[in-house]
Amino acid sequence: MARLTPMMEQYMATKAQVPDALLFFRLGDFYELFNEDAVTAARELEITLTGRANGGVGGDERTPMCGVPHHSAEGYILRLVEKGYKVAICEQTEEAGAAKGIVRREIVRVVTPGTVMEQKGLQAKANNYLASVVEREGSFGLSFCDLSTGELLVVEHDSEQKMLDEMLRHQPAEIIVPFGEKTTPHAITLRDLLACVLTEGLEKTHNLARASEVLLSHYGVMTVDSFGLANRPQALCAAGMLLAYLDVTQKRNLNHLKMPAYITSDEYMTIDSFSRRNLELVETLRDKGKHGSLLGLLDETVTAMGGRLLRRYVERPLANRERIEQRLDAVEELYKNLLLRDDIRQLLDAVYDLERLVARVSYGSANARDLQAIGSSLAVLPSLKGRLESAGAPLLKELGQRIDNFDEIVDLIERAIVEEPPISVREGNVIRDGFDEYLDTLKTASRDGKRWLAELEQQEREATGIKSLKVGFNKVFGYYIEVSKANIQYVPETYERKQTLTNGERYVTPGLKEKEALILEAEEKMVDLEYQLFCQVRDAVSEILGKIQEAAESIAAVDVLQSFATVSIRRRYKRPVLNNDDRLYIEEGRHPVVEAMLKGEPFVANDTLLNTAENQIALITGPNMAGKSTYMRQVALIVLLAQMGCFVPADRAEIGIVDRVFTRIGASDDLAGGQSTFMVEMVELANILHHATPRSLIILDEIGRGTSTFDGISIAQAVVEFLHQSPKVGAKTLFATHYHELTTFTESFAGVKHYSTHVQEQGDSIVFLRKILPQAADRSYGIQVAKLAGLPEEVLARAREILVDLEQGGHGHETKPRIAEAANTPVSVAAPSKPAKPTAQLSLFDAAEHPVVDELRKLDVMRLTPLDAMNLLYQLHQKAREE
């Protein structure tokens, strides 16, 4: 085998440190990739793949390679990270002239999907979380870190479902699992569910002792009690494993990371992943976009920080009445005080993303433009602080008081940084004149030297008579005098030829060499000094990083509150009345998102009354497209808005604090998980029945429709009975169904009330009036809805014949179904001359009683557990099939 060159030996040794990352290896002005890394990068980046002939000494094989310029590498790196790759950046860590042998190179950073710091790789109003998870004996510890803002959250859960819900809420870009556990069932579930990068943590960093050591060392504290995690070992392990991973991959100061904050469940409403999806809280079901979601409607935030906090408010409404009222008081003042709200919005408009800016300062990647943005943002805070402290709402006052004074750092940045600084901080032109005396001296020397060069050019033109003579500069030859070939004969003997060009010659003179040395020395010192001065200013900002982060938190909260007020005014929302009882009363409620989407058409408002006594379950019947789902969703969204601290789309709303919102809406297969529509529905339903409480709100839409009619109606009725009669549940419930038999079966239930969507018949057609009436529907109008959907007339005509046949008994001679008989005759495409007289929807149980029905009637459902019910249902299903 051919011996490797020293450079390739260095590359191979470096690559061995990061086997799971693409290695960007700095060679001069390029980052080069070799072997499989080169093949992968060339394919993903669509750049040329070449070969290196001298990969080995004495060998004929060519080493695959590709490269990108170092000045534009950021874009290429981010493209690879977006595709799920990790990229290790290896830099030259000593000057080529100072090296003895090959130049020393080291990995300075590993960029992964969860550790992106570059602005171009981040969404302004969304967090980019790196997560970790540790499981021991059924207990899950989780940690979430947004490196770009410094946020660090931890939590423990006692079930896999709760862990998955937490992961789905935070949507991490990358998840760290313990060393050697990347192929466990939990890890595979996470990878498939979240479609994110799964990474193994460092060996032993997830055990309690090592995790504690990492945390104590990073934050400089003596005991884990400082974090409030003494009795939460799994959460502590997850946080320690995550921090150890960051230390190894980032290789720099991470002082901007805040102390771990534990996610408490008691203070917040619980919304599982199914309900977040069904209610389209942060993205739509159809295209996964923000527009059309509740978040998209509410987002009138001015700052990126406010946008990120708004998303957290939407996903985690409060369950503490006192805190909700504080938010509502603040929103009400902003709602009523137009001048205050406009002043705040105007001031916020001048604030940049302070959270991410100061994170880059601590990280060491902030440039002069970042410092300038920090300075201009901090400069408006005294005015914002004054307006907030003058407000009447206690929360606004408190947020104003948490904003510190930053006059000194603002003055330092204004004096130090030029008005329009360049992107790079290593090429000069960053520091203002007058900031440093020695720098001013060097600048004067540089300017005088360049002035001398300009004068020299004019003098030499006059002395030689060569009008085209010019003085130039390049990095290879320094300063020179260039003369075209046509004028070479006029060149004085004192000129020394330096370079021959196609169209001329370049010369130097003793005087030019002497001045060049002075100018270049001044410029070199000037650039180095400017960078040192810039770092001093950056360090001064880093010293007050915690105060800036606290101010940023207040700014974000104010931004969310003014966003709530702005939307409430624009959409005519009203302040809800909160109470601690079980009553939910909504007068003229509207669906916030649907109402906003309607163009020139008024939204039909509806009332709602629910409690845990005589109005516990609202059983809603009516045709498809008539508005049942919209109505139920709007009730849930109004409750969520109220507990976020926002006004609601209703003329009046009285809301007893809800601890959980559950929804089972819509039908979808889980093909990846191997689950049918019906199984998905049953899994979601089981989750609701196991976890709902009397303080919960449940939204159920057409339970049981994914299976046979008898199975479906049996499940639907059993669920209604369980919700109504189980003392552990007793939750307020909106239940939409097409099983009209339920309205008969539940007439004796004191807590069940019947409602329907108002439909107006016009011959063979219907008009949806979208109004919820306090009565049960007797028809589903399926054929009329099919007509509206555009089904062919011959299909509709045949459907009418079959419907009449079913309504008349459904069987002919020798018990053969009439449907089958009719199907053997030609289908008439003509519509009936007279529309059939409307009849009540056929009851499934009008025919001779089936043995399964008899067994159902004899059941004592109140003695059945949910598991017993499911087993019994399976047995009855088998009997029905055998019959």
Automatic annotation (TrEMBL):
One Pfam family, short name: MutS_II
Keyword Disulfide bond: no
Record key words, sorted: ATP-binding, DNA damage, DNA repair, DNA-binding, Nucleotide-binding
Binding annotation for ATP: G622, P623, N624, M625, A626, G627, K628, S629
CDD domains named among the record's database cross-references: ABC_MutS1
GO molecular function: ATP binding; ATP-dependent DNA damage sensor activity; damaged DNA binding; mismatched DNA binding
Domain DNA mismatch repair proteins mutS family: 696-712
Protein purpose: This protein is involved in the repair of mismatches in DNA. It is possible that it carries out the mismatch recognition step. This protein has a weak ATPase activity.
Family listed: Belongs to the DNA mismatch repair MutS family.
Protein name per its UniProtKB record: DNA mismatch repair protein MutS
Gene name linked to the record: mutS
